[in-house]
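pinging the channel bc i need a second pair of eyes. not urgent but kinda urgent?? the chain im working w is below, pasted from the shared doc
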Amino acid sequence: MNNQPSRFRRWFAELKEWLSPLWHRFKQVLKRFWHRFQLTRWLIVVFLSLFLLLSGYLTVVAKTAHVSNLKATLEKPTRVYDKKGNSAGSLYSQKGTYISLDKISTNIQNSVLSTEDRNFYHEHGFSIKGIARAAVLYAKNKVLGRDYISGGGSTLTQQLVKNAYLTQEQTFTRKAKEIFISIEVENVYSKADILMMYLNNAYFGNGVWGVQDASERYFNRSASELTVPQAAMLAGMLTSPSGYDPVAHPAAAKQRRNVVLQLMVENNKLSQTQADKYKKTALTITNGYKQTDTYKYPYYFDAVINEAINKYNLSEEDIMNKGYKIYTTLDQNQQQDMQTIFKNDSNFPADSADGTPVQAASIALNPNNGGVTAVVGGRGTHVFRGFNRATQMKRQPGSAIKPIAVYAPALENGYYYDSILQDKKQSYGSNNYTPKNYDDTYSGKVTMYKALAQSLNAPTVWLLNKIGVNKGYESVKKFGLPVTSKDKNLALGLGGLSTGVSPEQLAGAYTAFANNGKLATPHFITKIVDASGKTIVNNQNAKKKQIISNKVAKQMTSMMLSVFNEGTGKTAKPTGYSVAGKTGSTSSDVVNGQDSERDKWIVGYTPDVVVATWEGYDTTDESHTLSDSSYVNTNTLFKTEMTQILPNTKQTAFDTKDAATLAKNKTASSTSIWDEFTNGASSFGDKVSQGANSVGQKASDLWSKAKAIVGQ
């Protein structure tokens, strides 16, 4: 037998012998260096400094978590109020029916504490053993390359804090914050309060939060009536609500229930005899839970949440679960009416051949302050915070932009509502841009108000070319619509925008016409109050900006009254009411001929309300375009909406008549003055002998009347 050491062992022994003196010298040098610079003390100082800094930071985190509001935020849903301060519904995603601890059976309290935190009444928010166990497992995971904590070590208070304040991310930083905030919670609340908050906000699967709703969902009884086996089953679900769901996994749920019963024995809450008896009990599920729908106005509430997030930097989780009071400009009557109208398919064109419905969106707002009173962002099934066509869609507005891009700036630059425009087919620029009237017929000349009322394209572009594209471009910007330098061309006058607009933006622009030239910014929220009663958002005095004169706004209204009285909006006019506004449409460009459109718009207003409505397909192709010959169209929808909305407004009258009436009166007055002037001139010779004074007075009167007509 060969007892000689292997070649490798001999080589390793020789290497060790050679390195030994070098290692010895290195240790001596390191020792002298260590003592000379007192590195041990420095390491202790650095460690303590880092510990103090971290502790200070975490203390600040805990103190600024506002745990004094925790109970209020958990027990109250976020509630939405309308423009009159009346409750309109609630927002919540992680809340159930909140009940006091004395209405929760001691059976569920004992089973939860036995399972989740036996030392709950002897800890101050955290467990030393739990932290040590979590730290060991954290170190192990780091060695294995896993960036998370396993094993938990969380007390019941820590679980409450994690759900209320933190994410489910399993990292050391989150764990450290959890511990410090838990200590703060224990400083503020009693153990009974903490247990009550936990049980009311724990998740029990199937979309159910809190023991009261869970008791109804699985056993059709209140939380105060839970038996020991029933309580043990609910407690068992806390670690994995889906895995131990008694509906989907009854065998696993029963097995887990029996584990909890045994844990209650170990925690001296049951005797072994009792536990064995309960383990033999059948698992019977009876669903008696009825969820109330408090999200009554889905598109409006979606828009409120979006505004709170995008404008006021709140998170969706906080909005849904922090017990805020959100005050809005909602008119519940208008909103309910609009929702009812959208649910009635007879108000819309027929579906396409493949069954795709024509989509639509409408928004109503108060022109005096910009507050949105009603909104519906589409047809069909609503998806929570899904696409809202009324506020998020961007489509070209077509002729609905003409008052903004062409006619208002024309009035500002010396034109009048009855100025004569050229109505001829002609080309402009090097690219031979040639706008056409809808029916490709032209009258040569037309008054401005008729060109607008009949939505004639040729005179509109001619007028924009006369005043200058830049003036139209600046006007569109002034009215708050999104434009870029690419839009500085004559197509702007017909709604050819590069990015498009939403119904909300278009309605907002028209507030200037309805409100004496003052532009109001559309908004939903007026005030937000947190659970403690502190106002964190105040938008009650929304600002308005004077962008055109009252005179121009008045003339524009008179012209747009003609749109509904004798123009393209005639079939959209609600019976018995005066409405001003403009229609619009865009060509589909996928089907030859005029009878094929991508978008249909109509914006109408009174001094009390502005309504913008759009119809079209989400995706336009040869099979999905709007037919202009359809009897049921945007005008039908708009008329139905306004017929419902206007009776519930103040019904404030316009301070002007439609342009056609003004022009008719002006013509009649002008004829009368000319006749009078002619008669006066013919009798001039006869009156010479009566003296020049009387003739001068007559001429003066005629001149005053003429000036009045010109200034009309």
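so Confidence is low (pLDDT under 50) at residues 671-712. and The longest strand covers residues 597-605. — does that match what u expected or am i reading it wrong
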